[in-house]
Write a structure and sequence with these properties.
two-stranded antiparallel ribbon, nucleus, alpha+beta, repeat, RNA-binding, pre-mRNA intronic binding, U12 snRNA binding, Alpha-Beta Plaits
Length: about 210
Amino acid sequence: DVFEQPQHVGHKKIEFHITTDIPTVLQINSEKEEKNGKRVYLSATTEEMNNTGFGRIFPAPSSNDKMETEEEDDEIPSEFISRRDLEKNRLSREEMEKFSVFKNYEPGDPNCRIYVKNLAKQVQEKDLKFIFGRYVDFQSEVERNMFDIRLMKEGRMKGQAFIGLPNEKAAAKALKEANGYVLFERPMVVQFARSARPKQDANEGKRKK
């Protein structure tokens, strides 16, 4: 009597017969009719039969994407442009060559100030802060005070701007990532601003005159 009671073994055998005898029928039914948890179970058994394992049931790339976005969020506050948006709206080198403003382009001598030209009429200081503020640590009072934007809106300097950044490293990174960025349908030309040396040369020129 003790050995005759556990008849549940027979039911388990029936389940294995279903998956092994008619796998093609189960695949068709699962694709056409079943949209609940049963479909996942059936697809898992067929994948197991094909020796592919259960790894493909769960999508791995989504977790990687979340990690990337979390890293970006931790690095740069949301009030400033993300690195992904900068890259997405930035011209490639081949595209830059088609614009006359990039002809004979030279970045200039590295320093903590950058010079931006070819700005659209609609550009305001807040737009430049949105882009270049990502290179400033606003929790630091020193860096916050060194961040300076001077947008020219009149005269011959119209459409140009000078931006002071905390250090040379931040300015170099800003130049590399923002040069060619399309703002209001016009690509920005970003260079290092000329240092105080030209002023000394200008004074010497006046003395010679």
